[in-house]
Structure formats: structure tokens, C-alpha cells
Amino acid sequence: MNTQTPASNREIISTVCSGWILLPPLILLPLALIALSIYLIVDSFPNQPNLWLLIPTIVLLPVSIILLTGFFTLQPNEARVLILFGQYRGTVRQPGFHWGNPFYANSSLQRGTPPAEQTTDGKPVIRVLQPSGPRRCKISLRARTLNMEKLKVNDKRGNPVEIAAVIVWRVEDTAQAAFDVDDYEKYVQTQSETALRHLASAYAYDHGEEHEITLRSGVDEISEALRQQLQERLAKAGVAVDEARLTHLAYAPEIAQVMLRRQQAEAVIAARQKIVHGAVSMVEMALKDLAEKQVVQLDDERKAAMVSNLMVVLCSESEVHPVVNTGTLYT
Fold it and tell me: What is the mean pLDDT of residues 290-306?
């Protein structure tokens, strides 16, 4: 059993002739051959035809026309992979008007994916695959954006969450994109979904332990981790990941209401703790100032009553109505 992994291809920068230099002679050549053929036929009509010159002229005419098919153009941030009879001959990245070997492959690099077989009344129906993608083996080097659909996955604690991300990527090695994977665009989409699912299952949505990174709190760390995972997975296809960001993060609908109440309860508890902490500090400050300025002498029982009244005033949610005591604390 052969388990050898196919060798990885590497891009080779290649140069071709300028199309503007070869355009005039390649246009004049077939015209000159046509004129020469007409002249030889007309000149030799009464006499013996000049076959030794006429035959090569007629043979060279289709060759000159074939040479005209070697012209191609490249826009900025666009490359053409040169394939000659199944052999990789390099990649042209220089934008402009060029001329190359007319026998360089002109077919599309993107074969597309075979559609799934469909059945109608138990009979298989197979649709004909239509080729898609750029012509003349051209590959765009521009930055592209993959806006992923929402995925439903379980986080580290098993809670179902909905998550989505946007990926900014570009082709860095055209040879790997063309020959190491079948369809690099679909490869990017599939691997991005796999990486996002793996990332979501490795972190908790929220309420992590101390110094634990969660999906909700560590946005920058999560985005960088996602980018690194994608770069490792997509390096095989010659793709570079420039940026990866989460665009959607929420609990799944079936537990969203429960988790919302939990968050509200935690928010109320946190607010209460802050209110109580502030009230204790204010009471302590009031008792300290009264003692230092000797405004009134308070025993332990009166201090306890004062603390109780101040805590009620400071911690109450509704407006407090004071009660005037006309007697003494002990009557």
C-alpha cells in the first residue's frame, strides 16, 4: 500500500516577451504570407506553378495565425500559471500585454465540484459539470473576503452557541493553489468552517475561570488564534490569511433566554456588591469624621443605630422617608 504524500509545488517566477514588440511582426506575417501566396498563384498560372515556394508559404500561414493566439494581458495583482503539455513552466506576475507560447494551457484552473447525484423516483440523475473560473490559467492575487454563515457549535462547557467570522485572504503561491488542491476557493471555505468550529469548542463562551480567555471577553486573542489556525490549514493551498474576525457570537435560541436571565442576575449581584461596598465606606468615613471633630459622642448602641439608618438610606432602591424621633434612643 502506497501512503506517500504528494510533493508540494513551489511557485517559479517566469518572464515572457512583451506583446507590444511582437504585435506588429505577428500581424504583418500572415498578411505577407497571404499576399505572397496570391502572387505565386497568379504569377505561375499560365506556366508551371512554383510548388517549391508555394507549399511552404501555405504551410506557414496557419502557423502564423496560431502564433497570434499567444497574446494575453494581466491586470495588476493578477498572475498566469504557465502549463506546457502538463508541465509547470512558471508564473507570470508582471501586469501588462504579453506574448507567450501559444501551446501554454488556456483551460480553466477551477474545475468546479461534481454535483451530488439526485434521485427522482428511485432513478439516479447526474447533471453535466460545467467548467468555471478564470480563463488562460489566471489567478487573482487580490485580497478576498469570506463572510461565513452562522455556525451552531458547542463551546468548551457544552453550551450551544452561534458563531460567525469574516476572513480576509489572498493567494500567495500560485503553484500550490493550482496544483496542490483541487479547488482552492472551496478549500478555503471548507477549512475556514472547520477552523472556526474547532476554535469555538476550545473556548468557553463566557464565565471563565480566573485569567481564562473566553469567546466573549478575549476578542483580540480569539481573532489572532483563529488567524493562526487558518494560516496553518491554508498554507497547503498557497493562501495567506491577512485577518480573521468574529462577526457574530450569541447563545443558541434554545438557551438564550435562560442565559440572559443568568447574566441579568449576575449584573444585579455585581451592582449590589458595589453599592454595599460604597455604603460601608461612607458609613466608616462618617463615623470617623464625627469622632475626630467631636460633633457628638456616640456609644456602641447609638453607633449601631446610626450605621443601620445610613445603610438603609444608602442601599435602598426606593426613596427613603425620614422619621423624626422626638424622644431619646432609650425611651
Answer: 69
